[in-house]
Amino acid sequence: MSSGGCPLFSIVIPAFNAGPFIESALQSVAAQTFRSFEVIVVDDGSTDETLGIARQVLQQSTLSWQVVSRPDSQPKGVAAARNHGIHATRGSWVAFLDADDLLEPNKLERCALTVSAFGTEPGVIHHGARLLDDKTGQLAPASASIPRTQRDYLLALLEGNFVTTSTVVVHRTCLEETDGFDTRLNGVEDYWLWIRIAKRREWRYIAEPLTRYRHHDGSLMRQRSFDHYVTQFTALLAVAEASGELSAAEMAILRRSVLDRTIRYFAGESARHDGLPGLFPGALRLARTGYAGSAASLIYRHFRAQALRWIIQLRPS
User: Fold this and answer.
1) Strand, coil or helix: what is 229?
2) Are 76 and 70 in contact (CB under 8 A)?
3) Last-in-domain residue among 179, 194, 219
4) Which residue intervals of 50-102 are DSSP H helices?
């Protein structure tokens, strides 16, 4: 492990059974053209070769690095792993990289130029990304309509999460005043953190794809049931409501977005692949958490779509 003065950036990489990807992720870190940074890999209880590969790659590099394990006393999951990594950092700015994503070589160089654009209250640097298809190796732009002001960022985030964790670099004061990622949440802990920071600090966007966001069969997004998404997003609403950090109007926007857009989207995906059996457990959970109207609407929409398909099939050709 290399040592030295405090770097400008700290890169935190949570890793759980990331053996197939951790080497390329770390190689993309080692290729950075801007060199004032450290890297902290946080093992979240991997049972594969993740830990050994990470140490081998880093030992062969000239980087300042740590490989740490999440204490057993902490809850398992990416939120706790990232928080543990944050506590180990020395840099003024914390960059996050998922273990299956990649950085472009000039990411930190471009972010270092943006650092000087902040005033006395630095906030968040957000940049573009490209989608990497793991099977074909093809890259595609991940386009989004990016807000321009702090207020615009907050409103846009309340309407839905368009920020992937590997595309943000956060000043450590933002993480200190929000206590980092909320470990009560699973899968939306980053979304809630971005909303909370947007309430407090300025965001600056770099209109360049500085991260390659990998799509592969092992991605969590491809392994979850509709019931899982209902659980995590209703938990988000409960945490946001209890926090008192959002105004009544802001809370209404978030609630409407989650119920009418996000959950409805995942319901449609579930119905298309698994039909009513895939939809029903999530709809039941939605009703039990106080959103019976939304649950009934989802079931109604499913049967209406099914009826329309039957009508079309019965029409004479």
Assistant:
1) helix
2) yes
3) 219
4) 50-59, 78-87
Residue 190 within any structural domain of the chain: yes
pLDDT in tens, the chain (317 residues): 545 579 999 999 999 999 999 999 999 999 999 999 999 999 999 999 999 999 999 999 999 999 999 888 777 899 999 999 999 999 999 999 999 999 999 999 999 999 988 888 899 999 999 988 877 777 787 656 677 777 899 999 999 999 999 999 999 999 999 999 999 999 999 999 999 999 999 999 999 999 999 875 555 444 589 999 999 999 999 999 999 999 999 999 999 999 999 999 999 888 888 888 889 999 999 999 999 999 999 998 888 877 877 777 776 65
- 143 shares its domain with 78: yes
Cα separation, 133 vs 165, in Å, equals 18
Domain extent, residue 161, equals 9-219
Rounded to two decimals, the pTM is 0.90
Which pairs count as long-range contacts for 145-148, CB under 8 Å and 24+ apart, including other chains?
A: 146/205, 146/207, 147/203, 147/205, 148/205
Domain assignment present for residue 4? The answer is no
| Residue 187 and residue 231 in one domain | no
Q: Which two tokens mark 189?
A: 């802990």
- 192 and 245, same domain (yes or no): no
For 111, residues 6+ apart whose C-beta sits below 8 A from its C-beta are 9, 34, 93, 95, 125, 127, 169, 206, 210
Q: How many CA atoms lie within 13 A of 156 on its CB side?
A: 15
Structure tokens at 202: 């300025």
Domain boundary among 219, 244, 270: 219
User: 284, 276 in Cβ contact below 8 A?
Assistant: no
